[in-house]
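Q: I'm a student working through a structural biology exercise. My instructor gave each of us a protein and asked us to get a predicted structure, then write a short paragraph describing it. Mine is ABC transporter permease. I'm not confident about reading structure output yet, so if you can add a plain explanation after the tokens, that would really help. Here is the sequence I was given:
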Amino acid sequence: MSTATAAPRRTSPYVAVLRAEARLMSREPGILFWAVGFPPLLLVILGLIPAFREPSAGLGGLRTIDVYVPVLVLTAIIMTGLQTMPPVITGYRERGILRRMSTTPVRPAALLSAQMVLTGGIALGSAIVCLLIGRLVYDVRLPQQPIAYTFALLLTTAGALAFGALITAVARTAKVAAAIGSAVFFPSLACAGMWLPVQAMPDLMARIVTLTPFGAAAQALGDAATGAWPAWSDLGVVAAWALVLSAAAMRWFRWQ
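A: Happy to help. First, here is the predicted structure for ABC transporter permease. I'll explain a few features afterward.
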């Protein structure tokens, strides 16, 4: 009497790539610190400044720390989008890994999508940690429009990943990708309100800044955090930038 042996379950190529990339990323403590640990740590440091915990008339009665929580949420997304993914994918192209993958059942697109999923997850995880620290340590209210805040957060993450994909497309080497990411990173932080919150900027400056992807995102996240529905113009600017940057990345991206 013969017995049937169940065939072993086969893992899809995409899941296998996702697991492998997750293991590789877990072995890079520097990347994880800057992507996950730096924004929450900076929030703790800013919260230690007594003046930041006092209401400000220039901010409509809000405390500076109340305004900086959405800014640091956005910082986490910018940092991961611009500085985490591009050097990794560009390094794979530089070493010929993408070219060699083209001869296997695992397509290079699976690697790119896995990196985007991991990077987006890291960004959102760091953002959630910032929100929790703000609430538990400094009594910052959680977003009063959670649906709008979540929508703006996901849209912003898509825009940051699209920006990172564009850097990946145009950079020939990992060092060039890191240099471009750093060069874009600091102006992006300025637009996001790191040194001067968008809500406190002069009107003309605020109008100009909110035409940039992260300036508009800062305004949308700030509005949702304080209980107002974000202006559709701000959400539209973020969405438009995400679409344009994605199209440019697809146009110029090369696997080898």
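A: Here are two points you could use in your paragraph. The chain has a mean pLDDT of 83. The two ends are 55 Å apart (CA to CA). It's a good idea to check both against the output above yourself.
Q: Great, thank you!
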